[in-house]
Specification:
265 residues; alpha/beta; 6-stranded parallel sheet; two-stranded antiparallel sheet; globular
């Protein structure tokens, strides 16, 4: 059984890479033949090129190419059926990640221009499996708090895509409400964890925890922190308060910079 995984497998985002690889290895460990459906929308790639840079994107691509089988790259929805046919993909797993995140174009009063949503945030796109003729499921998909009621004008089209899924689970209550809204309650999906939480069970490695602790000088009990830079940065007072509380429970706080730029701590 050739199972195509459709997610943000390539982006410069550590969590996205890990959730993808966890799903990939779960399928492989259980006797299936997983393959990454290599959908890379141009507008999304250009976004990461600006905020992460080519060197960072190359690092994530190298990880991907060294560990996973992929289809050829495509960016247009019209190419999707041919990719499925050419690679004999019999089933599709969509997820995890914020793949049902719908965004409308909006005018920015700061930059005085219209900010257009990237292709992966427009409907339809491959994540919604519109007119796909092979069985497909959505695994712990999120909408990232999308303002889904802004899309009532295409509610019928989104409903048709959602009811075509053989099974849908979501990552949060907001997305659960969204799926229920578009399907008029016909689908009331379960909330299930992101596959990254089972990474240690699905991905077997010879690298020991003691080796990692020694390499990065980590204590036995630690919490990884990541905070955005720019307009969305967290107040340092709040960060220090959270750090203080974790310290009181015996956890050290370790900062992990984001691949697209981080708050300086």
């Amino acid at each position: 059984m050739k199972i195509g995984i459709l997610t943000y497998h390539w982006v410069a985002n550590y969590g996205a890479n890990l959730q993808m690889y966890s799903t990939y290895m779960f399928l492989k460990n259980n006797g299936y033949s997983p393959i990454l459906i290599n959908y890379i929308p141009r507008s999304t790639f250009e976004f990461y090129l600006i905020f992460a840079g080519q060197n960072q994107i190359n690092s994530h691509s190298n990880f991907l190419n060294n560990h996973c089988e992929t289809t050829r790259e495509f960016s247009e929805l019209s190419d999707f059926p041919d990719v499925l046919h050419d690679y004999n993909i019999t089933h599709i797993v969509v997820g995890s990640d914020s793949l049902f995140n719908l965004i409308k174009d909006k005018y920015s009063w700061i930059s005085r221009r219209v900010i257009k949503a990237t292709d992966d945030h427009r409907f339809p796109n491959p994540f919604w499996c519109t007119n796909v003729d092979v069985p497909h499921v959505a695994l712990s998909v999120s909408s990232q708090n999308a303002r889904f009621k802004d899309f009532t004008d295409i509610k019928e089209e989104i409903n048709e895509s959602l009811i075509s899924f053989n099974k849908i689970t979501v990552r949060d209550d907001w997305t659960k409400k969204m799926v229920s809204f578009f399907t008029d309650g016909k689908i009331n999906p379960s909330v299930t964890p992101d596959p990254v939480f089972s990474f240690n069970y699905n991905v077997k490695t010879t690298t020991s925890l003691d080796y990692i602790r020694t390499k990065f000088n980590l204590p036995k009990k630690y919490i990884l922190f990541t905070f955005n830079n720019g307009r969305m940065r967290a107040p340092k007072k709040g960060i220090n308060e959270v750090k203080k509380q974790f310290n009181e429970f015996g956890y050290a706080c370790v900062y992990l910079p984001k691949s697209t730029g981080s708050q300086k701590l």
